Amino acid sequence: MPGLKTILAVVPDTGTGLATMETALVVGRDHNCHVRVLHVRPDPASAVPLVGEAMSGAMVDEMMSVCERQGTERARDVRQMFDQVCGRYAIPVTDEPPGPPEMSVAFLEEQGVEDDKVALRGRMADLIVVGRPKGDEEPALQATLNAALMDSGRPVLVAPRNPVTGIAKNCAIAWNGSAEAARAVAAALPFLIKARTVTILVADEEEGTPSAQDLENHLAWHGVTAEIRRVVPSGSAVGAALLKACNDVSADLLVMGAYTHSRLRQLILGGVTRHVLDHAEVPVLLSH
Question: Which domain holds residue 68?
């Protein structure tokens, strides 16, 4: 099966964006990929519905002007960061296929709603890299992550908030036999094949679904030797138990299906996906 060829890295700003971009570049380096760094500038007109009908035309114009100025400054800073990082590592900048045999990069700047642009652009990528939202404190980043997961049809790598220097030397798979977990494993095969160790973490398996032993056998056909590790959660804290197990096996990549139960139920009541997204310190490869 083909490996990774194109990656879309979503960089909204120079804060969370640096770790996201560097995570994407580490993957690109290891797999000789083409990495597109996408920055989306907000459309000033989108701020108008938020101001209310009571505001005067002059106030609306001022708000749009401020939005335009801030968007321009943010885009300039992101582009400077991109140029500095690519210059530091002498990465070829091109967007013409098939590209060089090693990693290459390109910078894309668009205007509009970030989650909409990511969902559309992401459909033409083998992998989307998005920063990890900080709980409910970053609703725009959360919306972008949800759009990448639910509307692109592509796997998503959630980058940690701190830059990484390596990824997927020791991989962990959160396995529950679901279709989402199976899709995540398929997307992760380029990582799993190159990994030194692969651990299948099993906290719960639904009756009538493929077992961890079935997954172990499936991976063996791809030349991947995996070890099964049973995870015993405390109460219903499956997410916390999975992250502890990742730490125990020194995993630097967690592979899992996203929202294998109702997404609305998980958002309201909490769930494994939500807990992992809120607390993971390693990159997490998700598929829905």
Answer: 6-159
